[in-house]
Amino acid sequence: MSARRLPGGMTTRTGLAGRLRAGLLAMAVAALCVRAPRAIAAAPGEEADLTRRSAAFTGLSGLARVYTAWKIPRATLVNKLSGLYFTREPFLLATQAHERFGGYMSFTLSPAIVETKPRPGGKGPPGAAPMWESFEVAFAYGAASHVSRDVETEVRLTTESAGDVDAALKYALPWPLFGNVLHLGANTGFHMLSRMADVGPDLATISPWARFLVSADFRRFFPLQAHLNVGYLQDNTLDLFDENQPVPPRWRRYSQGAWYEDSFLLGFALDAPVWRFIPYLEATAWIDTDGDALNDAGQKVGIQNVRQNPILITPGLRAFVTQHVAFEAGADLGYLSDDFPGATDEGQKAIVPPWQLFGSVSYAFVPKLPVLLKVRRAEGRLTGKVTDAQSHQPLGRVVIDLEGPEKNLPQLASEEPSGEFVLDRLAPGAYVLVATLEGYAPLRREFEIKKKEVTTIDVPLAPLRMTGTIAGGITMKDGKALGGLVFVQRKGDATPKIMSTDAATGAFSATLDTGEYDVRAVAPGFLESKLESVRVSANSETRLAFVLDPRPEPKLIRITEEKIEILETIHFETGRAIIKPVSYPVLDEIAGTLLENLDVNVRVEGHTDDRGKLEVNVGLSQDRAESVVDYLVNKGIERSRLTAVGLGPQRPIADNATAEGRAKNRRVEFIIVGGQFREHVSQVTAPPGGAEIKWAVVATDPHAIVYEARDGKAIGRARSGQRLAYVATEEGWVSVRLKTGKVVWIKAGDVTLLP
């Protein structure tokens, strides 16, 4: 490095500005040429915590100048190249213009590359990482070029520095506080200037500093993180100048990088990570410790208020184009104070630029540790990853307990957000791992540790079945309880769950899986309730109250053994299959009757007169029959109980030669094809002695086993909702009469007796 003598006997560190800029440009190109991942977007569930792969200007994990209390991932190397620029006229002197171009090249490393020793005895909170893995080291190399121009004489003075050094060490507390929100740490290091007239560092300028770090991670609630730095700087950069020479003016000290004094260091920052973007806002201040500052004459003068200390407000944005490569841009906004106390020229300000632009590019190299690992002793290493067995997403903060040949094995916790865990220096032998997390079933895994080998296991945790309760009752309008059935159907399921209510209280209750359900209630002699949509939540009770209206006496239909006769014609729009509203009441009465007789199946037949083409009439009758089926299904009748058939003019009941006959032939009929209505079952299944029939409804989902005798051979199954004639009850068994007249037995818990 060469040196140049300036007017007034001052010596400066010099070099060619072009060479400096070319060197910085070459480093930038080299950094960008580092191999990056092929895919810009991360695979689902593998998005890295990019805020842990970010470094400050002079190294160590952080933003621009504010450091974070967490550290970069273990064994990670972050290489960052930064450039800064500002120009101002006037600056420091009313007759002086100033231009600065500078930059930093920094390296940040988490040194835990090989096996590490866990905390003695496994003491400490769950998930505590080995102490060594919480350290982080950094090294930075700085260079700058300053051009000061006298606006009156156009005389230019160029000061160039290349070789300023920053070194730092940081320790992050390995376990967070308050539910993984608060992180604590500390760092220390030094800043050193290069010699003014020679190559190499000037040891006299070593300026040590230390900071206490606090970071708060609120991303579990909203995308925001906060950071606070409090520290102290012992500044020795003025020792760069010859003590036998007068203290240079402030613009010279600023150009040489020797403008600090012993200071308290304060920094606060907010950042809001959103996908791969990290916008942030910083405030940093250097508060003079003795309340004095050097003026241009080298005299100590008092600082009258805090504003006269150097203060910077820094907005910035960091963007990761891949999981490893990040670009950053921002600006330093200097907080301009009143005139500097004891200033020799009007207009002098505190030594901070009014504005300064910066940009940077960084590359984070994150190796796969099992590849780099070289176990040097007889012990082995355990690595693994905890995932959700259903979604396959990683799970953090899973507590992992180990049992094995060693005593006092440490308790681990999987990391967030990767779900990974690591434990080094395990003695060879058989081990058992137990992983636990609230809301998941504990998992027990057996594995073996071998000498000088890495054992990797996957830990898929199965979510526990989450249940809630649905309860309520069925009553009349006057509050009297009703015995009946409640149909609970989970959305998306094909069949409902049927619950019976207590005949005395009308109450019902059931434990169900969490989710959305449709619920309806029926009771003999009453209209069906409206369909209620409810949500069953975990560990909570959902209550429903059904108030049923009495079913009016049949007015529009008559039931025979073969069919449901309708006393009013079902009307459609001319030539179409759209039901007219005038026919809704008769169809509603049919639906209510079918809901009370769950074992009855019906064929809906559509008929027409013989006017027109045969195929057109058959198609129209089919469409009309299907419209009737759709209407009944919407009223709660299972579609499997209904069949639509279009017969056209093929089965007339009157003469098509007359208008009256054709009107009778245009009809819909409801033919019973399975089961029997309650009013007519007595003809086949009447109990002995002429007693009034009572009914047993099968309430087991989906079927109940039918036995030939109590505790005897099973001969078949009765489907859910089927209505059977009740005969007697004996010691937990109910005897019922089948339609064939045969008496069989069903367990009492599988049926509900209707009054």
Key traits:
single chain; 755 residues; mainly beta; Porin; Immunoglobulin-like; 5 domains; 5-stranded mixed β-sheet; 7 helices; elongated; disordered N terminus
Shape: elongated
What's the CATH topology name of the largest domain?
Porin
Unreliably modeled segments = 1-20, 28-48, 113-132, 337-349, 370-377, 679-693
Gyration radius (Cα, Å) is 43 Å
Please name the CATH architecture of the largest domain.
Beta Barrel
* CATH class (first level) name of the largest domain: Mainly Beta
Query: Level of helix content?
Result: 10-25%
Global structural class: mainly beta
Number of spatially distinct domains: 5
Terminus-to-terminus distance:
107 Å
Task: Count the E strands.
Answer: 42
Q: Let me know the largest β-sheet.
A: 12 strands, antiparallel, barrel
**CATH homologous superfamily title of the largest domain:** monomeric porin ompg
Strand order of the largest sheet: 3-4-5-6-7-8-9-10-11-14-15-16
What would you say this structure looks like, in words?
- With about 750 residues, the chain is mainly beta.
- The radius of gyration is 43 Å and the shape is elongated.
- It is built from seven helices and 42 strands.
- The chain has five domains: about 15-35 and about 50-365, monomeric porin ompg (Porin, Beta Barrel), CATH 2.40.160.40; about 375-460, Immunoglobulin-like (Sandwich); about 470-545, Immunoglobulin-like (Sandwich), CATH 2.60.40; about 555-675, 2-Layer Sandwich (60s Ribosomal Protein L30, Chain: A); about 680-755, SH3 type barrels.
